[in-house]
Automatic annotation (TrEMBL):
Residues 37-344 form the Luciferase-like domain. InterPro entries: Luciferase-like_dom, Luciferase-like_sf, SsuD_RutA_monooxygenase. This is LLM class flavin-dependent oxidoreductase. Keywords: Flavoprotein, FMN, Monooxygenase, Oxidoreductase. GO terms for molecular function: monooxygenase activity; oxidoreductase activity, acting on paired donors, with incorporation or reduction of molecular oxygen. It comes from Frankia nepalensis.
Length: 405
């Protein structure tokens, strides 16, 4: 049990006035709970998945990228044609696509989807994974390359005539004018927890992404990004994107029973090296985000209202892995805690991927949106956070520790 802060009617000054929801698209029914051998894309499943996201009210879907995964551009184009409103986020590594070509591809996607394209630039957190596609640049220099990549992308979308470029990482002559986006430049997101990531993100990104962390730690990181943006003379700050793996059930007690079952299955999967992230199992993660997640897990399993770190511990923090555990009301209140700290983009993806995505759309997203609509209409906070306390209340703490020695 954690001491409860005040949840009075005043809306915190740091609160984002609105929130949009992101999910990661899955290509087949294989999960960390139940790995299933697959050729990669189960088209019937994929169609059902993205249709469920659209019907569930999600705003964006992330199309991930890895050396052994489907191509994110091609999958994003499919999402664009299978949906009417969902915005595809292309995960792109600068080492895999020359920036003028990347600009063309993204602008083409943006035209095909009538302005829905977003790009998430991945500088690369693992030397071993980068080397699989011939990238041997040192990690700190990869962010410098990302910075130059952003500059070329934006010039490619906006220059009215041909332009040349002679930089540290890219050189070309008389490119353009490039193929234009549908209406406006495409939003650019980056993430990472290294000093280099913060510098590039604060100076240039439209969106800066984080994995789920304890509230006070995340707020400090947001302030760090904003300070860099101010120092760079930016008129606006990057939007803050935070990612969780919620585990929900009808009540907090049932959610904790489910969470204990989930983590045992996920741990067994990782022990068997039966899931694609297992190539990193048993090693010390190179990326700072995973190091932070493991440090939080080592310090405590449970933080704030509902943040659970054991899922990160059993997976070696291989990707976004911290959970929010509780009833839909408790998890929605926990999401609002992060909105109150400044997050305006919230990514939620489950362990039972399709079923969880459907449940979030039915039971969690409406509660968050109802609260934000109440705030917009009244200028006051609603009662959800004050009445569904999660770990700020004694009952929840008993459910969380049930069965433990």
């Amino acid at each position: 049990m954690t001491a409860a802060p005040e949840f009075g009617p005043a809306i915190p000054e740091t609160a984002a006035p609105e929130v949009e929801f992101i999910s990661l698209s899955h290509l087949n029914p294989s999960t960390e709970l139940n790995p299933i051998p697959s050729r990669g894309i189960d088209l019937k499943y994929f169609r059902r998945y993205v249709r469920s996201l659209e019907e569930g009210g999600y705003d964006y879907t992330l199309l991930p990228y890895g050396s052994n995964s489907a191509d994110s551009f091609v999958v994003a184009s499919a999402v664009g044609q299978l949906t009417e409103r969902l915005r595809p986020i292309v995960a792109l590594r600068p080492n895999t696509t020359f920036p003028t070509v990347g600009a063309q591809k993204l602008a083409t996607l943006d035209q095909l989807t009538e302005g829905r394209a977003v790009v998430h630039l991945i500088s690369g957190g693992s030397d071993a994974e980068q080397a699989r596609q011939g990238d041997y640049l040192a990690k700190e220099r990869r962010y410098a390359r990302t910075s130059e990549y952003i500059d070329v992308l934006r010039r490619s979308w906006t220059e009215p005539g041909p332009f040349s470029h002679d930089g540290e990482f890219y050189k070309f002559d008389e490119f353009g004018p490039g193929f234009a986006p549908y209406e406006a430049p495409i939003p650019i997101s980056i993430g990472g927890q290294s000093a280099e990531a913060f510098q590039v993100g604060g100076e240039k990104a439209d969106i800066f992404s984080f994995w789920g962390e304890p509230l006070d730690d995340l707020r400090s990181e947001i302030e760090r990004v904003n300070a860099i943006a101010r120092a760079a003379g930016r008129a606006t700050r990057p939007r803050i994107w935070v990612t969780f793996r919620p585990i929900i059930a009808q009540t907090d007690r049932l959610a904790w029973e489910k969470a204990r079952d989930y983590v045992a299955k996920v741990a067994a999967t990782f022990e068997r090296a039966a899931y694609h992230a297992q190539q990193y199992r048993g090693t010390t993660p190179q990326n700072v985000g995973s190091q932070r997640a493991l440090a939080f897990a080592d310090r405590s399993e449970l933080y704030d209202r509902a943040l659970w770190t054991k899922t990160a511990a059993v997976t070696n923090a291989a990707g976004a892995s911290t959970a929010l555990v509780g009833s839909p009301e408790t998890v929605a209140a926990a999401i609002l805690d992060y909105v109150d700290r400044g997050a305006s983009l919230v990514s939620i993806r489950g362990y039972d991927t399709l079923a969880d995505a459907v449940d979030y759309g039915r039971y969690v997203l409406p509660l968050v949106r109802e609260e934000l609509a109440h705030r917009a209409a009244t200028g006051r906070r609603g009662t959800l956070q004050a009445t569904h306390l999660g770990n700020y209340g004694a009952d929840y703490a008993q459910h969380a520790t049930a069965g433990q020695p």
